Amino acid sequence: VGERRPARLEKVRLPEEEGGSEALCLLPAGASRAPWTLKIHGGPHSASLDSWSVEVALLLASGVCVIQPNYRGSIGFGDDFCAALPGHVGEMDVGDCVALTRASLAQLDESLDPARGGAYGGSHGGFLTAWLLGCEERALYSCGVLWNPVVDLPAMLGTTDIPEWVSAEGLQGDAAGADATWPVGAEDLLELHRRSPLSVIDRVEAPALMLLGAADQRVPHKQGRSWVSALQQVRQRKGAPADVTALEFPGEGHAIASLEGNAHAQQSAVAWLVERLRGESNAS
């Protein structure tokens, strides 16, 4: 970021009868039919804020608009809003992200190019990115970046340091796990698989970048590895190679927090998105 460049903030909100979710849309000055990225927070009980972010600044400076959704389950919108998501991951949150994407494209139609959009998220944001690349509305997203994503909820149970989170978010109960099924049974495992983005891997066609911390105990790197491997196998059976790149950072945890590792991961994500989203206009 070599100089100060003003950006515009617009809020997009869904009607209360559709859940009342909200997105913060950041647009570079003079944005006209510009590429965009849906940058999705993790948690899922966290929030996207109007605050400084290196990645957002770099994307804006590169001419890429940033849509930051606060889907149901996000904090800061009341207890009912936050508590609505447990038991509905892979469904309610995915639907909110798609609806906010469509609402943003409609409200900011002169600023955003609907043909040049991507998705980017880490942890539960990576879970949602994987879902968006394989959901019914996947044509909205021409590429995706996944940072230590959850992709296979049943496999998480025996490997994560918070197995009760899987049950609370994927089956029933509140965010603290109250009334959630634990330990889970055979039918529960099937339900968790249905809520996992790995269940729609056969639909994924868009290019993807996977960023993994090899020492992640929260979301073990085998989650991301399994998604990449499954995508490669599915695409091979269809006679088309998978356009997927994986970067693994030795010794790094969930946040890829070391100075060198974090800088490498963030710069890789931004450069990859900019290349694909801005490059599409040159090819069209």
Structural account:
The protein is of the alpha/beta class and 284 residues long. 37% of the residues lie in helices and 19% in strands. It contains 9 helices and 8 strands. It has an 8-stranded mixed beta sheet, sandwiched between helices. Helix 1 packs parallel to helix 9. The radius of gyration is 18 Å and the shape is globular. The protein starts with 6 loop residues before the first strand and ends with a helix.
Compact description:
With 284 residues, the protein is α/β, with parallel strands linked by helices. It has helices at 54-61, 79-83, 92-107, 124-134, 153-157, 163-170, 186-194, 221-237, 259-283, and strands at 7-13, 22-28, 34-40, 65-70, 112-122, 144-147, 208-213, 244-249. The longest helix is centred in the last third of the chain and has 25 residues, at 259-283.
SSE topology:
Blueprint: E1 7-13, E2 22-28, E3 34-40, H1 54-61, E4 65-70, H2 79-83, H3 92-107, E5 112-122, H4 124-134, E6 144-147, H5 153-157, H6 163-170, H7 186-194, E7 208-213, H8 221-237, E8 244-249, H9 259-283
Parallel strand pairs: 3-4, 3-5, 5-6, 6-7, 7-8
Antiparallel strand pairs: 1-2, 2-4
Strand content: 15-25%
Q: Going across the major beta sheet, what is the strand order? A: 1-2-4-3-5-6-7-8
Report the end-to-end length measured between terminal Cα atoms. 28 Å
Q: Helix count, per DSSP?
A: 9
Sequence of secondary-structure elements:
EEEHEHHEHEHHHEHEH
Regions with pLDDT < 50 over 5+ consecutive residues? none
